[in-house]
Amino acid sequence: MSKQLTMSDIARMAGVSTATVSRVLSNHPMVREETRDRILSLVKEHRYEPSYVARNLSTRRTHTIGVVVDDISNPFFMELAKGVELVLQKNGYTMLLTSSGWDPAKEADLIRTLLRNRVDGVLLTPVHPESESTEVMRRNGVPFVVMNCHSDNESVSYVSTDNVEGGRLAAELMLRTNLTRFLCLSGVPHQSTSERAEGFIHEIRSHGRGNDLAVYDEVRTFDDGYNIVPSLIARNRLDAVSTGIFTSNDFVAMGILEGLIAHRIPVPSQVSVIGYDDIAFAERYRIPLTTVIQAKHSMGQLAADELMELIQDRNHNPARLLLKPRLIVRDSCTAAQSHEPRSAVP
To answer: How far is Cα 320 from Cα 81, in angstroms, rounded to an integer?
Structure first.
C-alpha cells in the first residue's frame, strides 16, 4: 500500500508553503489562479485527502450536519429532509442541505466540501451505496448514515425501504384484475428503482404472465412519462388492449396520466397506472394516483436519530433498517373501480 500523502507532500511537489495549500483547500480567495490550479491538479492526481477529522480534534463541534440528496426538486427528498430537520432541531443541530443531481462526481465534491466545513456528520442519499463519497467518509472517520439505499458493508448504517416488496405489491394488485398487458417503466439507474422493477417483474413472471410484460428503462421525469405515451400506444395498443403501467416514481406516473388523457385513453377502465413514493400531491392529482407508499418522513427521522447516536458514541453498532412499504389504491387503478374500497394494502 502506498504511503498516505500529507499536506507537506503536496506543498513540496507544488513548490509552495503548506499554508498556501491549506488556503486552496479551504477556497480562500487570496491565491493566484495559476498556483490554485497547480495544487488542485496535484490533489486530484494523487487522490490526496485532507485529514478533516484531525483538523476537527482541535475544535469544538460545529453542531451542523451535512445532508446530500439526489434531487432537491423532487418532493420525495424534501419530505425526507423534513423528517431529518425535525430530529436535528430537537438536538440543537443545523442542517446544510444540498443536491448531487444524480452525479457521483458532484456528490463526492459536495461531501469533501462539507467535511472542509467541519460538519459533525453527514446524511446521504447516495447515487450508489458503495460510492466514492461513502469511502471518503469512512476513511476520515466521519459519522454518516445512508438513506434510500442499503449497503452490503456491515459497518455502514442505513435506512431505506424494501423496494423489491414495493414493486411486488404493485404487480400483485394488477394481477388481481382482468388486465391483458403489463408495462414496467424504470427510471434513474439506481438501487432503489432497479429493485422496484425487480419486484414487479418477478411477481408478474411468477404468475406465468412474462409474455404479457414489457419493460422500458430511463423514463425518469414527468416529461419523460408524458412523451413516451405515443410510443406506448403504438407498440402496445393501449387504445385497444387493457393495460397496467407501473412506474418507478410518482412524477413519471403523473406524466403518463397526462399523456393518456391527451390521447383520450380512459383511465382506469382501459389503462391502470401505479406510481411509487406517494408524494404530497399524488392524492390530489386530477386522477388521484394509486401508488406505493414510502415512509419518507420516518426514514428521515430514523436516519437522523441514528446519526445522533453515532456522533455521541463512535462504538455504536450500525443500524440497518428496511422499512415496509404499503400500497394505496386510488382512482388511477382499475381495482378502485371494482367492489374494493379505496384503501392501503399491507
So the answer is: 19
Indicate the pLDDT class of residue 343, thresholds 50, 70 and 90: very low
Cβ atoms of 84 and 148 closer than 8 Å? no
Euclidean distance between CA atoms 124 and 318, whole angstroms: 15
Domain ranges in the chain are 1-48, 163-294+326-345
Residue with cell 466540501: 113
The one-letter amino acid code at 291 reads: T
At 58 the pLDDT is 44
Secondary structure letter of residue 319 according to DSSP: P
pLDDT digit string, tens, across residues 292-341: 999 999 999 999 999 999 998 888 999 999 999 999 999 999 865 543 43
Closest CA to 105 of 78, 131, 124, 74: 131
Q: Which long-range contacts (CB under 8 A, 24 or more apart) does 207-211 make?
A: 207/175, 209/175, 209/182
pLDDT score at 345: 45
In CATH, what is the architecture of 163-294+326-345? 3-Layer(aba) Sandwich (3.40)
Interior CA angle at 84 toward 79 and 85, to 5°? 95
Q: Show the cell assigned to 1.
A: 500500500
Largest CA distance in the chain: 78
The terminus-to-terminus CA distance of the chain in angstroms comes to 51
CA–CA distance, 123 with 95 (Å, rounded to integer): 10
| Element at 110 (helix H, strand E) | helix 104-116
CA distance 225 to 239: 17
How many angstroms separate the CA atoms of 170 and 245, rounded? 10
CB of 130 closer than 8 Å to CB of 153: yes
Q: Cβ(343)–Cβ(330) under 8 Å?
A: no
CATH for the stretch 1-48 = 1.10.260.40
Nearest Cα to Cα of residue 184 among 94, 248, 261: 248
pLDDT at 344 over 50: no
